[in-house]
Write a structure and sequence with these properties.
Gyrase A, domain 2, 23% strand, alpha+beta, 29% helix, OB fold (Dihydrolipoamide Acetyltransferase, E2P), five-stranded mixed beta barrel, BirA Bifunctional Protein, domain 2, eight-stranded mixed beta sheet
Length: 598
């Protein structure tokens, strides 16, 4: 065997044993005839000791080592001398007195050291990902990912779910984001699509009688990327038959409770808090609210209609909204220049024309450059609405409802992080329910599904499917999102199982029966053959790991991620292919590769 113990395994109880370890040279130092080499694997580090007096040839060999060489070392486990125990190492009570060294592989000088405290640029880390993955932090996160995935699988197995794999090569269907297309060599001119989710297949499994399905599924979306989004990602996909919304929420809430206990060692009570979509937008300006801190949005539109301040009054009288947040005890932390910076930021990020601000003085009176435009009674009414106290900072946005949501949600999140208003280790879950079913797309001049076309309306809203625009816009879906620390950790819906209702929804989305048949024919057909009531949910596994790990970049919890341009710096993907390969697929590229100059 290459090793009898790992580099993180040895303890005081092993003193006197002869063992063999194998790993990478983490550090090496010469102390006048005694050479210390720390050897590292994913389990930890072990300090090994080479004595020139004991074996001169061995000592000469060890002096040739450099960082990241791969070595095998045999020796006797000794207790470290008194006063030299290292409490920062799990193996800090012992050291290995080496009697044999085998250099398994030499390393070229590495672009960065995995154990160095300085983290290199992300570009460098992704280019040399195999070295970056040696860093203890990356090993911690990927170990956590494994633990979370195992807990998920164990939980669903205990609850009679079957894990069923669904196809990667499927048919392109309109699901919101762009599909990744794969050309067919056999049927030239035709394309497969990589799945954005297993949505249609899992519904078919319910119709087929597999009443409890689960899958750790790979999904693909050709969309613009950011810190918490990747072109290929993993989701925990769940579907159940003969269930209502409460059943799905219950099974997933108990999963959350299990994850918190096994992964974080924290007991959380059930049921998880629950708010409606409308409440979330009114109170927090976002459908995935961060509940770890207050700073809730307050509406002062009625007051704005009575004031002489034109910015407020004109918006309020034209049907817009005037809303604000109270940044508690923060007035002295923000200068006029700081507030101007926030104003500029909201313009760049959200298209806001400006924000209105007040500071609360020691007597509880609202002050600021805009205060002179308000009567004392109006300022008092605003202060009462926002529950002000001395040294509070008030920030207001006015415009249409969606604009005020974007601006104040953005300010709320930015200021909470800046002012450290929450414990970064806290895990705050809630459910958001009763989402809108449709929204009107001005560009396409039609109704668009908020989730997907197979989402069932609330039973009490079914009659509105036959109503006019006002009634249709008021239809609420049997949809529910699991929110964690202000991120959507997962979302699901109860599906339509009645083909007549499904056809009505397709019609509202502007599809004729022929178009629906062409795009979703297999599902439309399947609904005719005894579809049970069913619903489910998908959890974003990458995002859940990111939040449980306490990091803010989803690329740091994926072994081999893509950049924000969907490229792999390590392998060079995506890359051009040989013309012969394109010819086999009957594809001609419009991108002309320049021939090298002679």
């Amino acid at each position: 065997m290459y090793r009898t113990k790992t580099c993180g395994e040895l303890r005081a109880a092993n003193v006197g044993e002869i063992v063999t370890i194998a790993g990478w040279v983490d550090s090496a130092r010469d102390h006048s005839g005694v050479f210390f080499v720390n050897v590292r694997d994913r389990y930890g580090k072990t300090q090994t000791v080479f004595d020139a007096a004991a074996d001169a040839a061995l000592f000469e060999l060890v002096k040739t080592l450099r960082n990241e060489d791969v070595v095998q070392i045999t020796g006797e486990v000794l207790a470290r001398p008194e006063g030299l125990v290292n409490p920062n190492m799990s193996t800090g009570e012992i050291e290995l007195k080496a009697t044999k060294l085998v250099v398994l592989n030499r390393s070229e000088p590495v672009p960065f050291l995995p154990s160095a405290p300085e983290i290199p640029s992300e570009e460098t880390r992704l280019k040399y990902r195999y070295i970056d993955l040696r860093r203890p932090e990356m090993q911690r996160v990927l170990t956590l990912r494994h633990r979370i995935t195992k807990t998920l699988r164990d939980y669903f197995d205990e609850n009679d779910f079957l894990e069923v794999e669904t196809p990667i090569l499927g048919k392109s269907t309109p699901e919101g984001a762009r599909d990744y297309l794969v050309p067919s060599r056999v049927t030239q001119g035709a394309f497969y699509a990589l799945p954005q989710s297993p949505q249609l297949y899992k519904q078919l499994l319910m119709i087929a009688g597999y009443d409890r399905y689960v899958q750790v599924a790979r999904c693909f979306r050709d969309e613009d990327l950011r810190a918490d989004r990747q072109p290929e990602f993993t989701q925990l996909d769940v579907e159940m038959s003969f269930v209502e919304m409460e059943d799905v929420i219950d099974i997933v809430s108990k999963l959350v409770q299990r994850l918190m206990k096994e992964v974080k060692g924290v007991d959380i009570p059930l049921p998880l808090p629950r708010i409606t979509y409308d409440e979330a937008m009114e109170r927090f300006g976002h459908d995935a609210p961060d509940l770890r801190f207050g700073m809730e949005l307050k509406d002062v539109t009625d007051i704005a209609k009575t004031v002489d301040f034109k910015v407020f009054r004109s918006v309020a009288e034209s049907g817009g909204r005037v809303r604000g947040i109270n940044v508690k005890n923060a007035a002295d932390k923000f200068s006029r220049k700081d507030i101007d910076g926030l104003t500029a930021w909201t313009g760049e990020q959200f298209g806001a024309k400006g924000i209105v601000w007040f500071k609360v003085d020691a007597q509880g009176v609202l002050t600021g450059s805009s205060a002179k435009n308000f009567s004392a009674e109006a300022l008092e009414a605003i202060g009462k609405k926002l529950e002000v106290e001395p040294n509070d900072l008030l920030l207001f946005s006015c415009g249409d409802f969606n604009l005020t949501c974007r601006v104040l949600n953005g300010l709320r999140r930015r200021l909470a992080a800046q002012l450290k208003l929450y414990d970064p280790d806290e895990m705050n879950f809630c459910w958001v329910v009763k989402f809108p079913m449709f929204h009107w797309d001005e560009e396409e001049n039609r109704w668009v599904a908020e989730h997907h076309p197979f989402t069932a309306p609330l039973v009490e809203d079914l009659p509105k499917l036959d109503g006019g625009p006002e009634e249709i816009s008021a239809i609420r879906a049997q949809a529910y999102d699991l929110v964690l620390n202000g991120f959507e950790a997962g979302g699901g819906t109860i599906r339509i199982h009645d083909p007549n209702i499904q056809n009505k929804v397709f019609g509202l989305l502007g599809m004729t029966r022929e178009q629906a048949k062409e795009q979703f024919g297999f599902l439309v057909d399947a609904l005719q053959f005894g579809a049970p009531p069913h619903g489910g949910l998908a959890l974003g596994l990458d995002r859940v790991v990111m939040l449980f790990a306490g990091i803010d970049n989803i690329r740091d919890c994926i072994a081999f991620p893509k950049t924000t341009k969907a490229s792999d710096l390590m392998t060079g993907a995506p890359a051009e292919v040989e013309k012969k390969q394109l010819d086999e697929l009957a594809i001609k590229s419009t991108v002309v590769k320049e021939e090298p100059k002679p």
